[in-house]
Amino acid sequence: MTARVLVVDDVLPNVKLLEAKLSSEYFDVMTAMDGPTALQRIAEHPPDIVLLDVMMPNMDGFEVCRRIRQDPKFAHIPVVMVTALSDTEDRVRGLEAGADDFLTKPVSDVALFARVRSLVRLKMMMDELRLREQTSGDLGIHKQVASLEVATAGARVVVLEDSQIEQRKIADTLAAGSYAVTRCNTTAETTEALKQPQDLFIVTLGLRSEDPLRFCSHLRSDERTRHLPILLVISDADTARLAKGLEIGVNDYITRPYDRNELLARVRTQVRRRRFQDLLRQNYQKGLEAALTDALTGLYNRRYMSTHLPGLLTKAVAADKPVGLLMIDIDHFKKVNDTHGHAAGDSVLKAVALRVPDLLRPEDTVARMGGEEFMVVMPDAGLDVATRVAERLRQAIADMTIADQSVPQGIRVTVSVGVSVMRPTDTPETLMARADAALYRAKQSGRNKIAMDDAAPAKAAAGD
User: Which of 19, 161, 262, 372 is catalytic?
Assistant: First the structure.
């Protein structure tokens, strides 16, 4: 894994040492000797991670970290503070300033590389989510999420610890931070708890009867828990196993004996990031739905159908099964708009959009293709089935009285339907073209009728 690392330290030998270590692992290293220069480097060439000395003149590492976190363009860059300080208050202060972790000088190579790789991996995932969300925002589909500052109160935390004393200590600390805690003694209990949505999983590396890292690896391979943050509780002797944990996807760790404020700060950081990621995913999903559905009717749109239909036809050909396609057009729709207004026209479109799916099978797909035209795709439906469904749709819509506040007596409309069935050589375009041609014949023969793509006589219904 290659990444751009910014090393910030006012002592040149420290800079050179970290630069040499990271370069030997094929990281692209940038350097800065003070806070202002570091911020300038970040603005010019944003790194994937910042290794930041705490004790620097003029602007210390805490202030640099705060400024990074205050800028929405760079707030997602991981920051690791590299320091000789070991005071818990300094660690808490750094975490509250936005640091992701601390490395103590002299820096262990194992801890350094494991932490850098873990945080870079996390940033790459965040970058992908932010890019998707930004694309949806640029299209005007929704407002982009601008800040990492999301509420953490009420977050759900699962704790796996087989020492009742330690379990209670963690639970009491989190309860003071307004977190909802589920306490577990075994991985089986934890698996059951994780069937419900959770914001964080805390596990001790010192489980006596089970391997916590194997369980963490299992969580990372499960779709339901793949993105769940994991916080390890370790002892000083666990450095090698910690590195392995970070490699398999553990997000953070805290070393015993730990300060309760530090535990709360680390939990808050992980929950905030988790909820921010969830917001990005939700925004992206909403954007995706908005891009593929019709805003007025809630049906799929032409864009979705143009993606859905080719794959469906390919599968049908491979399975030697038919596909039916209906093109539906509301007769004299322009007259509805001209007579009753566009609001009434919208009421008609929505009423038809609600009625059509009710008359289809679960496997059928309906889309609004634009204006007053709808399309229905019917897997495993030959001409007879497609024709019967088309007639049922035509009759049901002709029997409807559509309510609209501007038309006390309600609105009556009819539809014309063109029916086509896939041939082995069909493309989506040829199949749709034949349905369009059939629809044209249905309208030409008087409307409120269906016609088939084999040029057979249109099946008549009540005249328009």
Answer: 372
